[in-house]
Amino acid sequence: MDRLKLLIDTDPGVDDALAILMAHAYADVLALNIAAGNVGLGHTVQNALKLVETIGARTPVFAGCAAPLIAGADDAAFVHGADGFGDTGYTPSACRAADEHAVQALLRLSHAHAGRLVLVAIAPLTNLALALTLDPSLPQRVARLVIMGGAVTGRGNTHRVPAEFNIGFDPEAAHVVFSTWPHFTLVDWEATMRHGIAFETMERWLTVDDPRARFYAAISRKTREWTRMRGRPRLMVADALAMAVALHPDIVVDAQDHHVAIELSGALTRGATVVDWEDRFGKPANARIVLTVDHARFETLVAAALGTAVG
Ligand code: BDR
Ligand code: CA
Predict the structure, then answer these.
(1) How far is it, in rounded angstroms, from Cα 60 to Cα 32?
(2) Rounded to the nearest whole angstrom, what is the distance from the C-alpha of residue 83 to the centroid of ligand 2?
(3) Phi first, then psi: what are they for 70, rounded to 5°?
(4) Which end of the chain is less enclosed by CB atoms within 10 A, N or C?
(5) Taking the model in full, what pTM does it have?
(6) Residue 151 belongs to what domain range?
(7) What pLDDT digit, counting tens, does each position of 217-275 carry?
(8) Cα distance between residue 180 and residue 130, in whole Å
(9) Quick check: is 164 in a domain?
């Protein structure tokens, strides 16, 4: 069977890195399209280039939007480190980002791989919103869109309590995507919390003699410490969970289809994902909300991407 053709829109980011490692283990990665989010675009582009070099891949890296569509937003450097990769002081990659803008690259690749392209969005949705605005026919050429974003019952992970980071960073972009993309798969923060990975398990995988495990051990050290200090019982790997769903849709055990909209104006709720759980508004479902996946299989995929055979 042909390998999946993936395009990843990402803001690396420690959990982005894990997702990108997984993608390269199981699919053809056509491009890494980079957004600002976890940290500024300069760092997220450099991090993507370094990761591609570490994997020994030739995946092109396209720089995208450096800021949200409208309003400024706080980054997540307190989780991912000031450079987004745990401040390890790594030697920068010798490679450079491609000259083409990420949005143009997405539109071009959507034509070249029409009907087969799987798009995985694990960053704020700025690039995707811009692409959709330039070319509203984009969804017709994309086989599947998987978005990591939102907090479907309001337990987010930002200072605006119900908002999750990717949506809260650029709510207008999320609104453009959620209100125009006909149907996508949504992997939210609350599913992420249900599918955390025990620290001891992750630390065991990170001792394996593999360049990917060594690199991930280094860049994730600060995030692991920070997560433990916060009293969280497990390591949250949001983007890796979304990637598992993109790579293996049959890993999903429980999901529901509903209409999801983005709150743009609430003083306490801007960036919230509002789910019409009882389908009261009669609007067609735009999202398949992933509730649970086969957790053992998820762990196997993550471990293998780090160089460990499980099972
Ligand atoms: C999402 O926000 C970012 O900090 C992570 O990389 C992930 O994409 C989780 O809320
Ligand atoms: Ca991310």
Answers:
(1) 6
(2) 14
(3) -125, -65
(4) N
(5) 0.97
(6) 5-305
(7) 999 999 999 999 999 989 999 999 999 999 999 999 999 999 999 999 999 999 999 99
(8) 12
(9) yes
